[in-house]
Amino acid sequence: MSAIELRGVTKSWPGTVAVDNVSFNVEEGSFVVLLGPSGCGKSTTLRMIAGLEDVSEGAVFINGEDMTSATPAERRVSMVFQSYAIFPHLNVRENILFGLKVRKVQAAEQEERLAHVANLVGLTDLLDRRPAQLSGGQRQRVALARAIIAENPICLMDEPLSNLDAKLRHEMRVELRALQRRLGMTVVYVTHDQTEAMSMADQVILMHAGRIEQVGTPDDLYDRPATTFTASFIGTPPMNLITLASGRSGAVIAGTNRAVIAGKDGEGRILGIRPEHIGIELAGKTGRRTKAKIKGIPARVTSCDYLGADTVVTATCGDQLVLIRAPGRCPLEEGELIGLAWSNEDVHVFSAETNQLMPEAKALRVAA
Ligand code: ADP
Ligand code: MG
Question: Any alpha helices (H) in 225-313, and if so which ranges?
Fold first, then answer.
């Protein structure tokens, strides 16, 4: 039995279908991320699970029970929002205990649970402070503590870390994941940030325009994108999606003459290759003249962004722009001629018509 199940859930408002026939399961104790660009229906989906929004069609099951028309309280799920939604006039202790007070939990039990949860999220020494006296990360921990203390086995989180700076966000990701594992919570976590999804999720549900684009582990989405949308959404910099033209010996990148897919059926295909899977060959000087001899597919460097651990090189290859991720510092000059090489198992072939992966289509190795 799944902790949460959505069956054919649709949410429409006059003129908008925010969520369109969405079905998925969330296993108990797992961390599931709803990922997708802004406006794709993530928050609406989460709010329908919480009962904060009615569903137009379909059903929501929690622990096997049809909860489609249950109130939020009956569903016994906690929710953490991007805006921490903590009370500015209450101190940390009062904020965390708010829900237990409303439910008239006994004072001794409140204190016991408070001590435990405050310790878990590292707020023990800050219980008397007001929100204004806390950092963003500390405030977010208060919101988290309030969700945890409710002891609901299911916790829904809507972009809970997006107000934090990059360093803190990273720390909180690790903390949150550790906490979720330790407490065995079932978490549905909404984010538009693919790095967050990749680093935290057991399962990613990638949404696009109200529908599910692909569901899988982070590895599935990264290594086996089923569509060009997934291919370009997962990974930074994104996968190169190169439109091909027919050449004499097969499909080529227009403006170059080396076949990248054999045979005549390369037209109408898109070649997907990740920036980290492209090797760079430097032009060697050969023979009597200094005419550069290039191995691989010739390309010209347009820019190099040095990022510390690696360098992102932008180059024009035929009529296409290609990104290459090279390890360390890659000392290339603007305008320099380079050769691009890759191995056929790193290439993904998509249909230009449907944008779907064509698993049977075989790419050629482009040797250096
Ligand atoms: P996300 O969280 O992925 O950014 P949302 O679920 O908030 O997306 O919104 C999905 C779509 O539904 C958007 O087009 C948004 O404008 C629309 N929408 C959200 N809430 C409402 C509402 N209360 N009334 C009408 N349209 C809404
Ligand atoms: Mg949202």
Answer: 228-233
Confidence of residue 70 (pLDDT cuts 50, 70, 90): very high
- Which residues place a Cβ less than 5 A from the ion ligand 2? 43
* Residue 186 structure tokens: 């079932």
Instruction: Give the pLDDT confidence score for residue 287 in this predicted structure.
Output: 46
CA atoms of 43 and 293, how far apart (whole Å):
54
- CA dist 189 and 182 (Å) reads 17
Residues with a CB atom less than 6 Å from ligand 1: 13, 16, 18, 36, 38-44
Strand partners, 282: 338
Q: Cα–Cα distance between 187 and 199 in angstroms, integer?
A: 14
What's phi and psi for 198, nearest 5 deg? -65, -35
Which pTM does this prediction carry? Answer: 0.90
Judge whether residue 300 has pLDDT over 50.
yes
Q: Which CATH superfamily is domain 240-363 in?
A: Nucleic acid-binding proteins (2.40.50.140)
The DSSP line for 216-228 is E-HHHHHHS-SBH
| pLDDT at site 289 | 46
Percent of the chain with pLDDT over 90: 69
Residue nearest atom 24 in ligand 1 by C-alpha distance? 13
The alpha carbon of residue 114 and the mean position of all alpha carbons in its chain are separated, in whole angstroms, by 33
Residue 108 has pLDDT above 90, yes or no: yes
Each residue's pLDDT tens digit, 185-207: 999 999 999 999 999 999 999 99
The domain ranges of the chain are 2-233, 240-363
CATH class of the domain comprising 2-233: alpha beta
CA neighbours within 13 Å on the CB side: how many for 148?
23
